[in-house]
Amino acid sequence: MNRIVWLDYGKAIAIYLVVLAHTAIYKPVESFIYTFHMPFFFFMSGYLFSFEKYPSYLQFVKRRFKQLIVPYVILNIITYVLWFFVLRKVGADANEAVGVFSPIIAALTVNAKAMVHDVPLWFLAALFVIENLYYLLYKNGKYSVIVTITLFLLAFLNNTFNPVRLPFCLDIALVALLFYRLGCVLKEKGDKIFKPYLFVLSAVVMVLVFIFNGKVAMHTDTYNNIFMFVAGGVAGCYFMSYICKMLQSLFGERKFIQAIAKDTLLICAFHLIIFAVLKGVMLYVFKIEPSILTGTVFLNVIFALISMLICVLICKILEKLNLKRFIIPN
């Protein structure tokens, strides 16, 4: 399968933004990233979706279960073991009063906030739920507009009136499906949809949403004003797509970018563990307090870059040892 070059740039930039947002970066920068980075991930997943690739639902479920849920289970086991024996006893989690079985229950119900052993893993299970719903709801293309409007209405009602989180990220799915659908629609429209004036408009909308809607977080189903969040997410998806297409035009294919794009799943899973290791090295080897990172921009940009590069290196080692396929089956 030929890779889509601009999506490789998109995945590489988006996973770096995920890593950066999880550092102790200056809070307004964190809030700005949260405005669009997860919507963009769902958007890219939707862009890659094809009904033609999976003519039967059973075939689709089997394939995506293998690609998403199997890694979700394996990575939860790996990171839980690390948390149980090491991370809950040292570092930032040492003083947290978390029951030893709480992360397991959280992982089984996909309660991201309580998955203290590795919060970012929620995305894998959520994407599986979202893709299944998309296949079932949009297979009959006749009612796409009605389905989309209904999804947004349900997302609004749930976010406004339901104080209880739904299991398996079903509440998040109602919102994420809108961005997933946007990816499918933009693929159908092609490059004709990308205009300079829309690029500028999308940038303005992103900034306005960031200013007026405040900090949001998809993993906890927190959107403040859901209309503004969706507007900011849509604008962010368009903005990022435009940027990535320009990068493709300027630089073409780059093996390093492809390497990052190919391993976004493992970078997502391992970067918080790498954070803990790097902070341990800072403190115990170089006698540098990790607190120097708090509230900074430049230092955290470098810290996030180093962390991501180490994750890429680990992925390459796993691939060389033929272990990667056991975590992420082909």
Q: What descriptive keywords fit this protein?
A:
single chain; 330 residues; mainly alpha; 14 helices; 0% strand
Can you describe what's shown?
- The protein has 330 residues and is mainly alpha-helical.
- The chain has 14 helices and no strands.
- Helix 1 (5-21) crosses helix 11 (255-262) and helix 12 packs across helix 13 (298-320).
- The chain starts with a helix and ends with a helix.
- 38% of the residues are buried.
Total number of helices:
14
Strand proportion: under 5%
Structural category is: mainly alpha
Shape by Cα distribution: globular
How would you sum up the major sheet? none
Count the strands? 0
Uncertain regions: pLDDT < 50 for 5+ in a row? Answer: none
How many angstroms separate the termini? 13 Å
Helix content: over 70%
How much is the average pLDDT? 93
Radius of gyration: 20 Å
**Secondary-structure element order, as H and E?**
HHHHHHHHHHHHHH
